[in-house]
Design goal:
Blueprint lengths: L9 H8 L5 H21 L2 H6 L5 H8 L3 H13 L3 E4 L2 E4 L1 H7 L8 H14 L2 H7 L13 H23 L9 E5 L5 H9 L4 E6 L1 H13 L6 E5 L11 E7 L7 H14 E12 L11 H12 L6 H10 L2 E8 L6 E8 L1
Helix pairs in contact: 2-5, 2-7, 4-5, 7-9, 9-10, 9-11, 12-14
Length: about 350
């Protein structure tokens, strides 16, 4: 996936072809505005209100206790972002956006939009992180810090998009009964895997702040009989076992190469001889291939964990050093840039 600007007419395409327009300025300015516009639409309740039906500017402003002038400007900007539509003076949620922005949708991502307020704060520290080499370290917040809730709920909403596809692609040994989800937070991937495999139970091991929110999510969904949360640092806590499967989803990018190899060795020791290791990770292209949006995610990981978005070759090296052989590596369709790697102990 690439990030870029879309020309609306021949003149704009001409300017783009011949590099007549300052694209860096447009990316910085319009990217900032589009992001904050969508975030404001979520936080101010515009999407929730329009999910119930269309409304005029004045009606929406009165319902949400907003100024009519500000509401009009925001709605026009949201229309430019293709989140809302206007017809005869009434605004409604755009059909394509309803899937993602209607709170009643099973694929609702409004929580992730709201989480971007926290991520915006993190990115405001980018320059200092690049100068000093020191990351924000988003996993060292106190357990009661409200940012944990925002973070884990956002990750839960993202997990719902790909969990059915991911769980179908994980082969477990016949009669599997126990899996370990390392750093599994909300536990939704583990829950989906358990629902697809009769008799399977999962243990999610994660930090206290994450576990507090994850337990609530699993309890609200009535899946506490399938998934148990346990507090602990995945790098040092006793893993237990042996397990039929170990899940390591979107954790590798938070760790250094040495930490990844050490964790994978611990996972191998916790697996049964024919157990399955499933690694779900954002993987960037090899460095000699054309760049996409993946390096931006890599920069995000540097900022928040002082780590990186690794290449497939790097991932293969981590697994080999830890005593695993790769059986398959498959890109996931529902969330861009995610690859599911299946490996087994040598």
């Amino acid at each position: 996936m690439r990030l870029g600007l879309k020309a609306d007419n021949l003149l704009e395409r001409f300017a783009d072809w011949f590099n007549l327009a300052p694209q860096p300025l447009a990316q910085a300015f319009f990217g900032m505005m589009a992001s904050r516009t969508l975030m404001a639409g979520e936080r101010l309740g515009v999407f929730s209100a329009l999910a119930d039906g269309s409304a005029t500017v004045e009606e929406l402003a009165a319902r949400l206790s907003l100024s009519p002038e500000g509401t009009r400007a925001l709605l026009e900007a949201l229309e430019a972002c293709e989140a809302v539509e206007r017809k005869k003076g009434h605004y409604r949620m755009a059909d394509r956006a309803r899937r993602w922005l209607d709170p009643r949708s099973s694929q609702y991502v409004g929580g992730f939009l709201d989480f971007n307020y926290t991520q915006w704060e993190w990115w405001s520290q980018m320059e200092q992180a690049v100068r000093s080499g020191e990351a924000v370290d988003i996993h060292q917040f106190a357990p009661e810090d409200p940012r944990w809730r925002s973070y884990i709920l956002a990750m839960f909403q993202m997990a719902r998009l790909s969990a059915p596809e991911v769980s179908r692609a994980i082969p477990l040994p016949r009669g599997a009964s126990e899996v370990l989800d390392l750093g599994g937070a909300h536990g939704w991937f583990a829950a989906e895997l358990c629902r697809r495999n009769r008799g399977l139970h999962a243990t999610v091991l994660d930090l206290e702040g994450s576990v507090r929110v994850g337990r609530e999510i699993i309890a609200q969904e009535g899946l506490g009989h399938l998934v148990t949360h346990r507090e602990g640092d995945i790098l040092t806590a006793e893993l237990g076992g042996p397990y039929d499967g170990v899940l390591l989803f979107q954790v590798v990018h938070h760790l250094s190469p040495a930490q990844n190899v050490a964790l994978l060795r611990r996972a191998r020791a916790a697996l049964k001889p024919k157990g399955t290791l499933a690694v779900l990770e954002y993987l960037r292209e090899d460095e000699d291939k054309p760049s996409s949006a993946a390096p931006l995610i890599g920069l995000h990981y540097f900022l928040t964990s002082k780590a990186a978005a690794y290449t497939p070759a790097a991932m293969e090296g981590f697994l080999a050093d830890a005593g695993f052989r790769i059986e398959s590596a498959k890109p996931m369709r529902h969330v861009p840039l995610q690859t599911l790697v299946i490996a087994r102990p040598e």
